[in-house]
Specification:
four-stranded mixed sheet, 8 strands, 18% helix, 2 helices, globular
């Protein structure tokens, strides 16, 4: 068996409308059609991958669990997020690997910005 790529990431969110607005208005993803799955949720396109949001009222985001967005200019993306009111950690460097920083969506899901180091 050979897996080729990630098709989608699924995240639980406590407030679907707030999450959809965040991922569309702040991060620039596009809403895509979602079949009637008989529970609240929304699907978004993020390039070649998708993000599936599932509304779960009593959800608490797991500590440390996250996924990362690859960026070419971490400082520029970080500054843009801060300008839009998003709290973003100070960047840190993993020597020989990447520069990274973290922020959260409205439900507390941890998200990373990751700029690989030239090497």
């Amino acid at each position: 068996m050979k897996l080729s790529s990630v098709h989608h990431i699924s995240l639980n969110v406590t407030d679907l409308a707030a999450a959809m607005a965040f991922y569309q208005d702040i991060l620039g993803f596009s809403e895509i059609d979602r079949p009637d799955l008989r529970f609240p949720g929304g699907w978004l396109s993020m390039g070649d991958q998708q993000l599936h949001l599932l509304q779960v009222s009593e959800f608490t985001a797991p500590k440390g669990q996250h996924f990362a967005f690859g960026v070419r200019d971490l400082q520029a993306v970080r500054s843009e997020l801060i300008t839009q009111g998003v709290e973003v950690s100070e960047p840190t460097t993993i020597p020989g690997v990447c520069e990274q920083c973290f922020f959260q969506d409205p439900s507390g899901n941890l998200l990373e910005l990751n700029q690989p180091l030239a090497g």
